[in-house]
């Protein structure tokens, strides 16, 4: 029995680490790194990766079979609600009616910061169309709550800019989002190394999604294994409950009574 269940859209998920498939040297490296990560949910950029729409090109699904992984089509590279909705409708056709998707609508090509106006519009359309939407968003607690109220099944605020590796820059906003959410909160974007993943989990996040931090490491397979451990350690630390911080006050580890004289 799992005493710490992780559930997305009503489906139990074993691993709290979600990973992407971009920026690897080849599909063989992709396969090995994802296997080392222990991830069960793997996100796929429909506009950048062949999953069958180009029959004469190598197919990612040969390396990441849907029989083994839960594929999460995403809208990376979309800058309008219309493009995002069209992309995910195509993904649903290619994946035989698959409804669990990751929505991201970008604001500009330099920061890749989310355009929240377009994101809200796309989320509303997709949910009405029967999709189960996991949504990339800013770390604005008001926007995050609005997306939840629309019916998104997971809220995915950035830790810092996509691919930056800067780690969690605003833990306070993330804390507010987590405290007010009734759906999973998954940090998406900005993680650089295993300690960043552990910090996200220690804050109380339900999970972490990453791509560049693994794919662009000097040894992606080894980094994938490190990220798996970081997420697991961070979650255990959160459940254990850290000791209170004591500013300017020490506390001896050993008893102070009954000392040998």
Q: Which strand-content bin applies to the residues?
A: 5-15%
Major sheet, described briefly?
A: 5 strands, parallel
SS element count, helices:
9
What is the radius of gyration computed over CA atoms, rounded to a whole number of angstroms?
20 Å
Number of strands: 10
Q: What string, H for helix and E for strand, traces the elements in order?
A: EEEHEHEHEHEHEHEHEHH
Distance between the termini: 51 Å
Helical content class: 25-40%
Average pLDDT score: 91
Strand order of the largest sheet: 5-4-3-10-9
**Low-confidence blocks of residues:** none
Present the secondary structure layout:
Blueprint: E1 7-8, E2 11-12, E3 17-20, H1 27-37, E4 41-45, H2 60-63, E5 70-74, H3 81-94, E6 100-103, H4 116-128, E7 132-137, H5 141-150, E8 154-157, H6 171-180, E9 186-188, H7 194-202, E10 207-210, H8 212-215, H9 220-240
Parallel strand pairs: 3-4, 3-10, 4-5, 6-7, 7-8, 9-10
Antiparallel strand pairs: 1-2
Helix pairs in contact: 1-9, 3-4, 4-5, 5-6, 7-9
């Amino acid at each position: 029995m799992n005493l710490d269940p992780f559930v997305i859209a009503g489906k139990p998920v074993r691993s709290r680490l979600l990973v992407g498939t971009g920026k690897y040297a080849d599909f063989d490296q992709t396969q090995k790194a994802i296997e080392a990560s222990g991830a069960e949910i793997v996100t796929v950029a429909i506009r950048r990766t062949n999953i069958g729409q180009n029959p004469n090109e190598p197919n990612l699904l040969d390396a990441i079979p849907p029989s083994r992984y839960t594929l999460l089509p995403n809208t990376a590279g979309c800058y309008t609600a219309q493009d995002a909705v069209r992309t995910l409708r195509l993904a649903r056709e290619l994946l035989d009616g698959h409804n669990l998707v990751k929505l991201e609508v970008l604001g500009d090509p330099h920061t890749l910061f989310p355009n929240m106006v377009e994101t809200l519009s796309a989320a509303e359309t997709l949910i009405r169309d029967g999709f189960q939407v996991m949504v990339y968003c800013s770390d604005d607690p008001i926007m995050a709550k609005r997306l939840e109220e629309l019916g998104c099944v997971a809220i995915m605020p950035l830790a810092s800019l996509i691919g930056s590796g800067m780690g969690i820059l605003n833990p306070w906003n993330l804390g507010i989002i987590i405290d007010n959410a009734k759906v999973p909160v998954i940090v998406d974007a900005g993680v650089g190394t295993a300690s960043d993943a552990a910090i996200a989990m220690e804050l109380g996040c339900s999970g972490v999604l990453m791509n560049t931090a693994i794919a662009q490491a000097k040894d992606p397979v080894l980094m994938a294994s490190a990220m798996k451990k970081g997420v697991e350690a961070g979650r255990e630390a959160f459940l254990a409950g850290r000791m209170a911080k004591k500013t300017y006050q020490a506390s001896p580890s050993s008893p102070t009574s009954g000392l040998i004289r």
